[in-house]
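Usage

Read records sequentially. Each one opens with the input sequence:
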Amino acid sequence: MKRLKVPCLVALDVLDLSSVGFLLENKAQREYINVINWSGYPYKPIVIFDIARSNVSLYIRFFVKGNSLKAVYSTDNSPVHKDSCVEFFMKRLDSEGYMNFEFNCLGVCDAAYRFSRDVKQPLSQDEYKSIRRYSSMERKPFAEKKGVYSWELVVAIPLKLMGLDPENLPEKILGNFYKCADETTAPHFVSWSRIETDTPDFHRPDFFGEIYF
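and closes with the structure output:
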């Protein structure tokens, strides 16, 4: 089982989100999304994420470099997994359900409280607004572009939104990190922690790794 340790960087909360990339790059825990789980989808872009927390939020910086780029969706609660997308799924040990946080390269988010792929409770507008995001790209939708592109996305997810008490964090939660782009010329489904299923399926908490605080 994959494991990672999330360092605490209190200074994250006093910096503008557009400025935290350097701190995360140098002080956060660095991991790679590089597991090809399904032979039918062999394409693997370069995907790095740096993860840390403050006293109130979990910060993740994604860096992606790959062939083509797509961002059709511009409104939260849209199926951004069809665009060039990065994702974070998490589960508390004391919960039967889990949460998914999916972002296209513009920072547009699709998130929900879930019991399965099909049974979910979407976030409210206020909950979506509480997720801070910074993208290296202009927030303007576009059809798929061919060529080699790189982009960076920083997100800050409130710990409370994930059902965690910032003043009494558990030793660990479970989770996984993904890169996908379902409706592009090179669809791919890459993960941090390996998934052992016959067909692509990110909604599998039984294959989540351990995330320690």
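Summary fields computed downstream for this record:
- Helices lie at 21-27, 125-130.
- The chain has a mean pLDDT of 97.
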